[in-house]
Write a structure and sequence with these properties.
Chain B: Keywords: Endoplasmic reticulum, Glycoprotein, GPI-anchor biosynthesis, Membrane, Transmembrane, Transmembrane helix. The complex is a heterodimer of chains A (about 550) and B (about 500). Chain A has about 550 residues and is an alpha+beta fold. Chain A has helices at about 1-15, 75-85, 100-105, 130-145, 190-195, 215, 250, 260-265, 510-535; strands at about 25-35, 40-50, 70, 85-95, 115-120, 175-180, 220-230, 235-245, 260, 280-285, 290-295, 300, 305-310, 320-325, 350-355, 365-370, 380-385, 390, 400, 405, 410-415, 430-435, 440-450, 465-470, 475, 495, 500. Chain A has two domains: about 30-60 and about 70-325, no CATH class; about 350-500, Immunoglobulin-like (Sandwich). The radius of gyration of chain A is 30 Å and the shape is globular. Residues about 1-20 and about 480-485 of chain A have low confidence and may be disordered. In chain B, helix 2 (about 25-50) packs antiparallel against helix 15 and helix 12 (about 370-400) packs parallel to helix 14 (about 435-450). The chains are: A alpha+beta (about 550), B alpha/beta (about 500).
């Protein structure tokens, strides 16, 4: 054995062969922005690029796959992507409601509450897209400790217009989209731990050191995202992002909106990640001049303060980055005791409110009001993805402005009613339309809905809590015409989720039914049996 | 008042016993018809509430336990040897026969025969010929030198080591991974703690794999399929603090034997794979951090031993890299990896149960000889056959013991398939050990699939008490008047017949 290997080794020594390496690049970045309501939004993004790599052709799924060799790309995720031949993957796990009006559009568009997963896959005869979708869900729920396995056919749709391929389209086969969301998913530490394990430096070095679960999950809004995109000219790009919105006014004693890294995360960056090719903290400076930022030697460029942390730069790692308002004693947001202030105009051009109301457990009205805050007319795509718990009645659809019916403002209406599937379940219904909203007006859409009467076994353990419905999605229309969305600075708007109260049974019912019907049976049986077998005698009573 | 009126006018009523529906036989017929309905309904009820328990081929499985797979092996002594010593053939035959009787476990499944002439073309025909030195040659040939060729004991011990390699106690069987037709080989470069002046960013893993691992894999491809993957991790802390040992004028980190058992920090190291159920063999190249470097394995007396790698049974192998790393060499070149991957190749062979070459024997050419491969094939096939026999027997026993356990068509089909595959394995063992292995592996997977069928657990936790809780409210209240009425009527009938008799 040993001699044989020596022989081989000698043979190879004469002809040394070196395999070509795919280049892998890892970049990390943190964006910090003070919001106008005193909150602080932080966006971590960790990008790993596999240069020159491409998605697996699903037609070759039956054959053996090439070996996977990674240095920076996480192998556990790479295995999943290759096993199910995923071209593009987006997974977000969020908690809280993103306040578009005060916070503006997020840096990462996927801010829908709960879990949202969508993937583009090439069609293939070897294994169908749906089989791979189910495998992908289960693999990801194992990887991220999330209940993504329940994103089954009752939640899956294919809204290709609102969720287009972000990267390039591979030529090997026609691609299909699978999208599902689970608004009731709770995001917690057990999801963050596997998320951090996908990073090359984990949470030991670099920006990820800051991600202290106790602080991250204490934030008013927090969410994480995994995005895998294939771009023809670069390769496969994996972007892990984590967004939080902290409220220093709430946590600080003096009601001040000052923040520093130590107070936000209760941790500091001790050292940089040695494999990161770039590592930076970008602070988006607020308008106005009354704020101060330390340390003061970053490179400033149009409203941004950039601190470079990568090991190659000579800049020493700042122990702490802080922003403070020296002239402000305590932060007052929209609070005035004497005069009521006029409402502030929202930052985003669109503000959306969506409610479901109605007094009974069987019927209700879904109403959405969209306000255009800008002086221009806006056309926007509107998408509802409803689980079959709710049936929307299209004939009751009303579009109003100031109580006047304006049906002309709604066009290109598409509706897929819930359809029964082979496994006795119903697929969700999908409503997609284009809304045209005149400047500075509020458009109201309302439609009647029916609430489903579920089977006894279909209820969750906490049935009285109600069911979460996923939020509606608004998307810019440039995506409809497949232009580059350069004219739009936003990708999607998610409305908050809704909680719907379905008719719930009394769960001790089966036993009550058994006992009651048995008693009834016994009564009927007893009286008939007695009638048939009773012996009648005439008794003579002697007096 | 009323009753008095009733009594007074009593003579106006008919005698109730004369009424048509008040006859005794009508009442008894009504009673009997209730009972008949109950008795007729009983089989239906029994059928509807019983658990589906198909009959398993119990007797076939029991008879399987006695039968065993047998590989016939023919050894042919070349004329160059038999001419020197004509009685050698029979001497070796007797010695091998004795050895087979003394160690039945080692020789199980092997039926060895020595042939004079090379006339019979068997699948496993081994040739022993005279050579310059004792060595294993290609395609099932053995060369022996002149001195070895003279001694029957020496020849028989070489042959028995090659054909039925001794299993060195329990450690061997615990080290070898369970048979699977597909393994994932995961090669991981672990930096304990990457600091800018001491860490390895990349390695020439593909060149090293092509050199040391792929040839071995291609030779073992008749037994297993492999998937190879590799990754690099930059922060893989240990779960314990290694002991500092002074060695001359330097201080090293020492790993004791106890430390080695807890070396893998599975909570922090992301080594697990989540996409498939195939067993994974891990090969870890561990780069200790600046503070823990150099890192040595120490013996019980605290002295460092001259070995930088160790094997974790059924899990994989770990190599501790103590090379001098400077900040300019963030890359491990192919030359750096050569000792590592040579070691990994040996450990892979050991984990897969490849028998070692007997002492004093040299080998020509490739990594593994056909002798070793054949012995491994036979051993694995035998293991699989025994494993599937045991599993089948356990299913039968379990189903016998637990009366509530359902046995569906799927389980039954799997058991029958496993039995059929076992028969195929026995049949093909004569002609092709590789085919026998494939059948035995199929038998094992079928048997385990039947054993772990989720349907068999379905009603295990639905106890009989639940049924009573559902049935008693109805059956108890119905059966009481029925039984009482029957007893009363029976007594009345008895009294009536006694009265008749007296008359």
């Amino acid at each position: 054995m040993r001699r044989a290997s020596v022989w081989i080794f000698l043979a190879y020594l004469c002809t040394p062969s070196f395999a070509l390496y795919r280049k892998e690049i890892y970049k990390e970045d943190l964006r910090i922005q003070s919001l106008r309501d005193g909150q602080v939004s932080t966006t971590f993004s960790f990008v790993t690029v596999l240069e020159g790599a491409g998605p697996r052709n699903p037609k070759a799924l039956g054959q053996r796959d090439e070996s996977q060799h990674y240095a920076l790309f996480p192998l556990t995720l790479g295995q999943i992507l290759r096993e199910y031949a995923i071209t593009e993957l987006h997974l977000t796990l969020n908690a809280g409601k993103w306040n578009y009006d005060n916070w503006g559009h997020p840096h990462e568009a996927g801010v829908g509450t709960g879990a949202e997963l969508w993937a583009w896959m090439g069609a293939s005869e070897v294994t169908t897209v749906d089989e791979r979708w189910s495998g992908l869900r289960n693999a990801l729920s194992g990887l991220f400790c999330a209940s993504l396995g329940s994103l089954d056919s009752r939640r899956t749709l294919s809204p290709t217009v609102a969720f287009p391929l972000s990267g390039s389209t591979p030529t090997f086969s026609p691609h299909e989209l699978r999208h599902a969301s689970l608004p009731s998913e709770n995001v917690c530490t057990e999801n963050l731990t596997p998320f951090l394990k996908l990073l090359p430096c984990k949470s030991h070095a670099g920006l990820a050191t800051l991600l202290n679960p106790q602080k991250v999950f204490d934030a008013d809004w927090h969410g994480m995202g995994v995005h895998v995109i294939w771009k023809e000219d670069t390769g496969i790009e994996l972007k892990l992002s984590l967004q939080t919105v902290f409220n220093p006014v709430r946590t600080s004693a003096g009601k001040r909106r000052d923040w520093n890294l130590q107070s936000l995360f209760d941790r500091s960056i001790e050292r940089s990640c040695p494999v990161a090719s770039s590592s930076s903290i970008t602070v988006i400076l607020p308008e106005g001049k009354d704020h101060k930022i330390t340390p003061e030697n970053p490179s400033y460029m149009d409203g941004l303060a950039i601190y470079d942390l990568s090991s190659s730069s000579n800049f020493t790692i700042p122990s702490n980055i802080a922003m403070y308002w020296p002239s402000e004693h305590s932060f007052q947001y929209r609070k005035s005791l004497s005069v009521p202030l006029p409402p502030l105009t929202p930052i985003t051009p669109l503000s959306v409110k969506r409610t479901i109301h109605g007094t009974t457990q069987t019927r209700g009205v879904l109403s959405v009001s969209v306000t255009n805050n800008s002086p221009q007319e806006i056309s926007v795509g509107y998408l509802e993805m409803m689980p079959a718990l709710i049936t929307m009645w299209m004939h009751t659809l009303k579009v109003e402005i100031n109580s006047q019916i304006r049906s002309d403002l709604l066009s290109e209406l598409k509706y897929h009613p819930p359809s029964p599937q082979s496994n006795d379940r119903f697929s969700p219904s999908m409503l997609q339309a284009v809304l045209t909203i005149p400047p500075k007006t509020t458009l109201k859409i309302s439609m009647e809905v029916n609430k489903a009467f579920l089977k006894y076994t279909e209820h969750p353990p906490d049935a009285m809590r109600g069911w979460d419905l996923p939020g509606a999605v608004f998307f810019p229309l440039s995506q409809l015409s497949h232009n580059t969305s350069s004219s739009y600075d936003w990708e999607r708007i998610y409305t908050p989720t809704l909680l719907v109260d379905l008719p719930t049974p009394d769960f001790s019912m089966p036993y009550n039914v058994i006992i009651l019907s048995c008693t009834l049976m016994t009564l009927i049986f007893g009286s008939i049996f007695n009638l048939l077998t009773r012996k009648w005698v005439v008794m003579e009573i002697q007096e | 008042m009323n009753s008095a009126a009733f009594a007074n006018t009593g003579s106006g009523f008919k005698d109730p016993e004369k009424l048509s529906f008040e006859r005794d036989w009508i009442r008894r017929a009504v009673l009997a018809s209730y009972w008949i309905v109950i008795i007729l309904a009983f089989p239906f009820w029994w059928h509807l509430t019983s658990i589906e328990r198909l009959a398993l081929p119990t007797s076939q499985v029991r008879s399987q336990l006695q039968s065993n797979i047998v590989f016939p092996i023919a050894i042919h002594f070349d004329a160059s040897i038999s001419q020197q010593n004509p009685s050698l053939n029979s001497q070796v035959q007797t010695l091998l026969h004795d050895s087979a009787i003394n160690e039945p476990g080692r020789w199980r499944g092997v039926d060895i025969r020595l042939q004079d002439r090379n006339d019979e073309v068997a699948s496993s025909l081994y040739t022993v010929a005279l050579g310059e030195q004792t060595s294993i040659a290609h395609s099932r040939n053995l060369r022996v030198n002149r001195t070895d060729a003279q001694s029957a004991t020496r020849l028989s011990s070489i042959l028995s080591d090659l054909i039925a390699p001794p299993e060195s106690g329990t450690s061997h069987s615990q080290r070898v991974v369970q048979y699977s037709d597909h393994y994932r080989l995961a090669f991981t470069l672990l930096n304990e703690d990457a600091t800018p002046n001491r860490f390895v960013a990349t390695w020439d893993v593909q060149a090293a794999l092509a050199e040391f691992i792929y040839p071995l894999m291609s030779q073992l491809s008749i037994l297993h399929n492999f998937t190879v993957e590799s990754q690099v991790q930059y922060h893989a802390p240990l779960a314990f603090e290694p002991r500092r040992v002074t060695l001359g004028d330097t201080e090293v980190s020492g790993l004791t034997q106890e430390d080695l058992t807890v070396f893998i920090n599975s909570a922090e190291w992301t080594l697990a794979s989540s996409v498939s159920n195939d067993p994974v063999l891990h090969f870890v190249l561990f780069v200790p951090s600046e503070t823990h470097s150099p890192m040595n394995i120490i013996d019980s007396e605290g002295r460092p031993i001259n070995q930088s790698s160790f094997l974790l049974p059924q899990w994989g192998s770990i190599f501790i890299l103590n090379n001098e790393l400077n900040s300019s060499s963030l890359h491990l070149s192919y030359n750096d990896l050569k000792p590592v991957f040579r070691n990994f190749a040996t450990q892979l062979a050991a984990l897969l149960g490849v028998p070692p070459v007997p002492l004093g024997l040299s080998m020509e050419g490739s990594f593994l000889s056909d002798w070793q491969l054949d012995a491994l094939l036979r051993h694995r096939a035998l293991q699989n056959v025994q494993g599937s026999q045991d599993t089948l027997h356990s299913i039968i026993k379990l189903v016998d013991q637990i009366n509530n356990m359902p046995v569906g068509q799927v389980v039954r089909d799997d058991v029958l398939d496993a039995l059929a595959s076992l028969h195929e394995a026995y049949r093909t063992a004569v002609t092709s050990p590789a085919l026998a292995l494939r059948w035995s592996s199929k038998a094992l997977s079928m048997a385990s699939r039947a054993f772990f069928n989720p349907g068999m657990l379905a009603l295990l936790y639905f106890p009989a008490e639940h049924k009573y809780a559902v049935y008693t409210p109805l059956f108890a209240s119905i059966s009481v008047p029925l039984v009482v009425a029957s007893i009363r009527d029976f007594m009345a009938w008895k009294r009536g017949s006694q009265d008749n008799g007296r008359r």
